[in-house]
Amino acid sequence: MAGRGHVDVSERRLRPIYDALDASNNKKAIQEADKVLRKQKDLICAKALKAIALLRSSRRQEALLLAAEVAAQEPIEEATLQALTICYREMERGDLVARIYENAVKKVPQSEEFLSHLFMAYVRLGEYKKQQQTGMALYKVAPKNPYYFWSVMSIVMQALTTEDEKLSQKMFLPLAERMVEKMAKDTKIEAEAEVRLYLMILEKQKKYQDALEVVVGPLGNKLISEIELQSLKQAELYVQLEDWPKANAKYRKLLLTNPDNWLWYIHYFNSLFHLVDSGWTPSEADEGSSDDVVTGTVDMAIAFVEERVEEELKNGKRLQRGPFLARMELLKRLTERGNQEAADKIGLPADLLKDYFIKFGDKPCCFMDMRPYVSMLNPDNHAQFVEELQTYTEIPDEKTGDVSLPADVQAMQRHICCVGLARSLGLQEQLTEGDREELVQDLTRRHQHGLQFGKDLLPTDVQPSDSYLLMAVHIKYAVYMKTKKLGLLFELIVMLEKGVASSPSNAQYKLILIKLYILLGAFHPCKKLYDNMEIKHIQQDTLGYFYACYAVALGHLTPACSILSAMLKFFSANHKDTTEYIIAAYKYGSFHKIPEIISFRERLNLSHNYSALAVERMILDFIMETTNPEQMRELLDYMEISPEKDEIKWDLLKDNRDLTVLSSWEPKERELTDQHIELSFCQDRQWLRLRSLILRSLAAVILMSQPAPLDGEHSPQKQDASRNGEAPVEHGNTLTSLILDINTHVQEVEGQAGSENMSLLCGPPPTRMKVYLDGQHHVLLTSIFQVAVDVHSLETTDLNQSQELQEKIAKNFDCILKTFEYVLDSMDTSIASPGCPPQVYPHVLEGLVLLVETLCLMTLVTSQCHVMLKPMKATLTKKKRKKKNPTVVVPQVFDNFKTFVDSLVQFGEKLHTRLTEVNTVITAVDVSGLEIDPAEKEAISVETVWNKVKESYQISAGETSEVLKQKLQLLRTIRL
Amino acid sequence: MTTLRPFTCDDLFRFNRVNLDPLTETYGLPFYMQYLARWPEYFQVAESPTGDIMGYIMGKAEGRVAQEEWHGHVTALTVAPEFRRLGLAAKMMASLEQISENKNCYFVDLFVRVSNKVAVDMYKKLGYSIYRTVLEYYSGDPDEDAYDMRKALSADVKKKSIIPLPHPVRPEDIE
């Protein structure tokens, strides 16, 4: 063993390497490490540090080798182990971290430290069985409770993750239970976390009675971290046990302590009706005022709720909504059960609602509170009901009899609530066009008037009168839904832009604005709006659907790259980010959070958005970043796409969009329903499937024409795998079946026509599928993919015997050119036309963008075909020269290919002209020529909105024509 | 009407109405995860009858017991605009204080922008007082000072923890 002095020397020698690494000077770190190693060969820590520096200088392969060299010596000094851990973790090779600690533990089995590192390494890997064993080994070395329970929790994780329910119920959970029981018997349970784990184990086995005994027993007294945890647990378990009298009494008692807790009322009512249905009758014990009184009859419950109301009124403090809402809930439930007699005892729905309105109408949430209960009213009385409510808000002007504007913010809130109710009850549906416009005007006027009530607010606050404007927007948008007049969108945008000017923090405004601009085909203004809301991190997953995919769809390709990569960064960091905290949860004994965090990590990983963004990003990269076949191959290697393997777990994909973010006052027929959401998610998945098939097909083409693996910096694992005796993949076959998949998929989608997306204001946006299929892009792409397959087959066929194949290729060329011409012609409509506001045709823009994309993809495939054809031609020419035999005929395919490329170039040029025209047309349409009185010119007007739209279209045209130009250059260089 | 319950990971998918408020920061995942893993009881969410998230409070317990510095800390407290003026913040604060009481904390503290008068007044109403000013605590353009506000809990019998400091401090001087 080295003496202490030796350690100090090593430490001193290593210091410069650490310093260089800390300063991110990897080159220096490598030099310093080499210097140390020249002096002291056996100082392997220097090697481990050098490996880190190599890795960080993108020399992964060398780093891996050097680290393996260190690991092979099975080090046990802390510094070396630490350095190796860092190195492997940065390589995302957590498995190797586990290996080095396994070896260290073998050498020093009594080391608490190594064992605990090993445990955490297994946690990172999700190796629950090994976690369990390591936890026990730890407990043996150092008999501390946490270690024991780490092991127990690891068994629970095995139970939760096994697909074999029987194994879970018959083996893992009973085992975990026995382990905890043993500790309980020896009265060794110390911490609350341990009790909660015990309860988790019992509940997972549905042993609610046993769990209850734990909760009410001495161990239950440890449940103190959350308020009322012990009581709450008891109440929950009574519900699970369907012990309704006890559940009822428990929730009743909880409500006495806090009469505002909604969940408790719900459980209280549920238990009540179970008791009523089972014919429960009170015994003497329930008559008194004891704490555990059961209120199991309707009359008792009514009395209880009325008491809560009375108490609340007596309280003198700010009223809590709980008792009043609970009273309406009870009334609703009784009515639904047909118990009119009892319902009448509480009162008439209209009276209760009015009472609620009088008490809480000045709160912004009043509308939301009342909405579930207005359904109790007779539809015939809706109008009258709202009118009556209005009488509480409006004071007619004594002189004129006109209804005046509200005098204070409270009166205004009440009025807002009334308008919201009127809208959601459908009272505005029958209005004539004139009346509707008048209503919009009135709401706009009230919005303006109401701004005075918020003039002292900070700019970070939302203006209380904003709801007026939002409701006006909803009303107008509903008209747009019916008429599809784009002019309305301009008006709506003007309204909302003005709204933002007066209430800059209102996110509702901005989100709707984004939606409307996109309906107009204008992406550019959205970016600023989105950034302004500081939507980031997890919100990219939940709110990204508002805008991310439109950057691509509307041809703002450069911003699209950065938007997509920023979003993808969030997803790819998720695994590392969350795993650290699973470890923390073990350390701090938050066992109940461990399954939660793990499924959260999974939900993000399986997010549909994640896959969709990744696929779009990769397609975009091919289009933007590659100008020759070699680059395509490099890019593909970097992306690690394998065409034969579908990496997307379709059945497990999660819809993480937050579709509740926008306020809505819409009547039932325009309410966003679960069916809408499901349908839209299904369409999203169909779109993703199409896109991912196209991407994989492209990958297959590249691998087909350039089969030799590249120097494997990027994908050592992949190479390992192929060396391990896997049969080489025939990419031609893969591509053939992918083409088949695309065709089948398109047929399926086309067969489901008629399920149009309603494009509700608060609803999910539609996909690009319709524009795509209308534009025949799938036909263009599958045909060119088929050409690639057939050209690939030519490689292995005698050219003179391949007449049939050549004809097939020629036919596909022909099909592509004809289709392309047809599509281009069909889009020969103007992108905009003058008017007030001017007309724009966003679908024309979308179609053009897609056509550019498809032409780019076809160019890439064509260039790969060229790679395959070129050697064939060369061999032929050689043969010709060698034999000096003029009878060798040049096969038709070469000529056909040339003609095809030439025609494609011509079409590309035409498309390019179209894009230039977009620019000209859009610039020519100028609203300044319209007769707008200069005096009426406002800071925000149709004109200013038009200018934004115009600018955005110009960018779309500019960016797409740039990309197109670049690809045309590539096409022009293709010469056989 | 509120259901106050522990915040769960899945709530992160639904808290947009609250977090779109410009003064409510949306943090990276590690920040939330750290609280959920270490102080799950201190991270509470208020839910409306319709299941919407009305607001949430995030906090922790920290500090040395020996120095009587063991205390509850409010990291974030926020309520969606449509659920303001219902006394929700007060309820969530009371819950955090109760949890801190159960842990025998000496006091509860929090930081607030000096410009956020509404919040400062609200905390004062809830029994908090300004313990010290922390200079340029909030980065931005320009940086903004914070009040470190405190409320003594029953463990601090003599209310020593809330005696105001005479001088402002720099962010690097606070623990």
In terms of topology, how is this protein built?
The complex is a heterodimer of chains A (976) and B (175).
Chain A: H1 4-22, H2 26-39, H3 44-56, H4 60-72, H5 78-90, H6 94-107, H7 112-125, H8 128-141, H9 145-161, H10 165-185, H11 192-204, H12 208-216, H13 229-240, H14 244-257, H15 262-277, H16 298-315, H17 322-336, H18 340-346, H19 349-360, H20 366-374, H21 382-391, H22 409-424, H23 433-450, H24 466-483, H25 486-502, H26 507-519, H27 524-532, H28 538-543, H29 548-553, H30 557-587, H31 594-605, H32 608-625, H33 629-639, H34 674-705, H35 716-723, H36 731-751, H37 769-774, H38 777-795, H39 803-826, E1 832-833, E2 839-840, H40 842-883, H41 892-924, H42 942-973
Antiparallel strand pairs in A: 1-2
Helix pairs in contact in A: 1-2, 1-3, 2-3, 3-4, 3-5, 4-5, 5-6, 6-7, 7-8, 8-9, 9-10, 10-11, 11-12, 12-13, 13-14, 14-15, 16-17, 17-18, 17-19, 19-20, 20-22, 21-22, 23-24, 24-25, 25-26, 26-27, 30-31, 30-32, 32-33, 32-34, 34-36, 34-38, 34-40, 36-38, 38-39, 38-40, 39-41, 40-41, 40-42, 41-42
Chain B: E1 3-6, H1 16-19, H2 29-38, E2 43-47, E3 53-62, E4 71-79, H3 88-102, E5 107-113, H4 117-125, E6 129-138, E7 144-152
Parallel strand pairs in B: 4-5
Antiparallel strand pairs in B: 1-2, 2-3, 3-4, 5-7, 6-7
How is this structure best described in words?
Chain A is mostly helical. Chain B is α+β, with helices and mostly antiparallel strands. Chain B has a single domain (3-173), classed as Gcn5-related N-acetyltransferase (GNAT) (Aminopeptidase). Chain B has a 7-stranded mixed beta sheet. At the A-B interface, helix 15, helix 17, helix 20, helix 28 and helix 30 of A face strand 1, helix 1, helix 2 and helix 3 of B. Chain B: GO terms for molecular function: protein N-terminal-methionine acetyltransferase activity. Chain B: Pfam families: Acetyltransf_1. Chain B: It is found in: Cytoplasm; Nucleus. Chain B: Keywords: Acyltransferase, Cytoplasm, Nucleus, Transferase.
